[in-house]
TrEMBL record:
Pfam families: Peptidase_S10. InterPro entries: AB_hydrolase_fold, Peptidase_S10, Ser_caboxypep_ser_AS. One of its GO terms (biological process) is proteolysis. SUPFAM superfamilies: alpha/beta-Hydrolases. This is Carboxypeptidase. Keywords: Carboxypeptidase, Glycoprotein, Hydrolase, Protease, Signal. One of its GO terms (molecular function) is serine-type carboxypeptidase activity. Its EC number is 3.4.16.-. It comes from Nephila pilipes (Giant wood spider). Belongs to the peptidase S10 family.
Amino acid sequence: AGQPLILTPYIENGQIEQVRSLSKVGRLPRVPRNIPSYSGYITVNKTHNSNMFFWFFPAMNNNTKAPVILWLEGGPGASDLLSLFVLHGPYIVLEDRSIELRKYTWIKEFHVIYVDNPVGTGFSFTGSEDGYVTNQDEVAEDLYEFLQQFFQVYYEYSQNDFYIIGESYGGNFRNQILNVSAF
């Protein structure tokens, strides 16, 4: 396995096109059709080297003005990949562990951001025990920082309608980020 693709240094240096190129996901093995997507890590707390993993799918209908959805899994502490592969993402994992395209997926009509949240969930990680959040305000601050950098890279979606949708405890995170952001 390689090193995590930390995008923040490139973002800070204004290397936006390089971020887009580096984060573009290649063809997945044994998947019948490639779905354009982007993935990597965004540093949300430099002091503790806290990084959030995301996987972003632009809408399949090529409508650049389609709404953007930030999906927040429940738990707290459940990976967004659960919903990506089980509920509404473009892929479904079968019993034999093969991957197929989902017939009905949110990304047909919407741009969807899946992010492992809070730090320490799924592929998101921190370099310090102090980097783990201890309350919902800290979760919201990390998500807000994530979104600020995300929309620097994928700027063409920054003026679209934006929806934060969460399952179970993810709904609590949604409410908190609305308190700290200007959305």
